[in-house]
Design brief:
alpha+beta, 3 helices, globular
Length: 286
């Protein structure tokens, strides 16, 4: 696939204030918050190593040549229009850094150069739930250790269409190396049972063992020399192909967060357990 823009990639201007959302007409706003092309059921991310592109990489389809979206890394050292000074990633709505940002994922708090520790919560910024709305919606993914001692990341999001839309819970669970899809490590996304309260359940609830839950996506790391080029592979499975564009975007952004933590050695039981202990000692309520 040919890039949307043939011009050379330019570094973003970090210090400009974001434009007010009121500047956009309804049509422009809708275009900004809608993926310019559908997210496929198989997505692969590939690095770019040549400066000044090293801080970006591409989300592709089944092959490296099928470039779909550009992903930009943010260290939090400079101000970003949506992330502020929170370390994270932004997904551009196209293959150029000049395309508008479609979604972001980042730390819950802004960067402190003196103190930087893993936090349980991740903030995902998505397009608004209602078409035509302006501004982005914040969703939360939370890390935890399940009752059966598995590293997990849980989030909830609306699935369905119109009045039939319900908010359901999902959980990324680390795959044991014994599973065929996890020879290089990875996670599976399971669809948790709907609670009796309109599909809602607090993140402080006990984490399910999820043994009998439907697997709706898998996230895997590249093996060997391929890991120098490919970041990860994401596949939607079963009903994961039927939950809508916004849900697929949320799955992608949470997968990017888990990859980010994996690269930093933080997507594991030891780090999450330490963060849970630190959180439990804190006086801040969840």
């Amino acid at each position: 696939m040919v890039d949307k823009h043939e011009a050379s990639v330019q570094l973003p201007v970090k210090d400009e204030e974001p434009p007010a959302y009121s500047r956009y007409e309804d049509e422009e706003s809708q275009a900004r918050y809608s993926p310019y092309c559908p997210l496929p059921s198989t997505m692969n991310a590939y690095y770019q190593w040549s400066p000044p592109k090293a801080h970006t990489f591409h989300l592709c389809g089944a092959s490296k040549e099928e470039r779909l979206y550009l992903i930009e890394l943010h260290s939090g050292r400079h101000n970003h229009e949506l992330l502020g000074r929170r370390p994270g990633l932004s997904l551009h709505n196209g293959t150029s850094i000049r395309d508008p940002v479609l979604a972001t994922m980042g730390d819950e708090y802004e960067r402190d150069d003196m103190i930087y520790a893993f936090k349980l919560n991740t903030i995902i910024q998505l397009p608004p739930l209602q078409p035509g709305s302006r501004g982005m919606t914040n969703e939360t993914m939370r890390a935890a250790i399940t009752d059966d001692r598995v590293a997990a990341f849980r989030f909830s999001l609306e699935v369905g269409v119109g009045e039939k839309m319900t908010r359901e819970r999902f959980e990324w669970r680390k795959l044991p190396r014994s599973e065929s899809d996890a020879k290089a490590g990875g996670f599976k996304l399971v669809r948790l049972p709907i609670s009796s309260e309109n599909g809602r359940e607090g993140f402080s609830s006990v984490f399910s063992s999820a043994e009998s839950c439907e697997v709706v996506a898998t996230l895997g790391w590249a093996k060997g020399f391929s890991s120098l080029v490919q970041a990860f592979s994401l596949r939607l499975l079963n009903s994961g192909n039927e939950m809508g564009e916004r849900w697929t975007l949320m799955v992608l952004m949470t997968a990017l967060r888990i990859w980010w933590l994996h690269v930093g050695g933080k997507a594991n039981k030891a780090v999450i357990s330490m963060a849970e202990k630190s959180h439990n000692k804190s006086s801040a309520p969840w």
